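ok trying this again, last paste got cut off
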Amino acid sequence: MTKGTVKGIISNLVIVEVDGPVAQNEIAYINLDGTHLMSEVIKVIGKNVYVQVFESTRGLKVGAGVEFQGHMLEVVLGPGLLERNLDGLENDLDKMEGVFLKRGQYTFPLDEGKKWIFKPIAQVGDNVSGGSWLGEVDENFQLHKIMVPFVMTGEYKVKSIAPEGEYNIYHTVAVVEDKNGEEHELYPVQGKTQAV
């Protein structure tokens, strides 16, 4: 994991000197006295990286540590997303205390305990790939297709599929096998699985 040190601060634009490779649009967390401020790389010039912080930088000082995550901003997709009040970073605004989220506070956008009725579409033995439909969940008369994650490349064979029933977002709804015989468990939720 690439690390860096804050070298300059201009409002929400922070200049960071890095010790390794970073990529445009990569996510980084700046340590402000134990609070992690989320930011995104907007420009890279040699060892200097310009990041935009998504919240107030008040109190941030030159010398603060930065950790780069090696991936771009991700969102969670899954049942329950349509009934939430979310901000642009997919924080659940109903979990706020007061008018604003506390600095460095990030929430998970879905109800992790709620159960949804899953109806299988795929069958054991089907060949699937990223984006193939495994099943569906009805949320307020809107059908969510539960898919093989797009990051899974190549072709897979469905080894098992959950029967129609009520499951939470972390219940295994399918197991698929790749060409090497390795099995992968798949869930109704895709994307980041927890907040920082």
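PB: full thing came through this time. Residues 75 and 191 are 6 Å apart (CA to CA).
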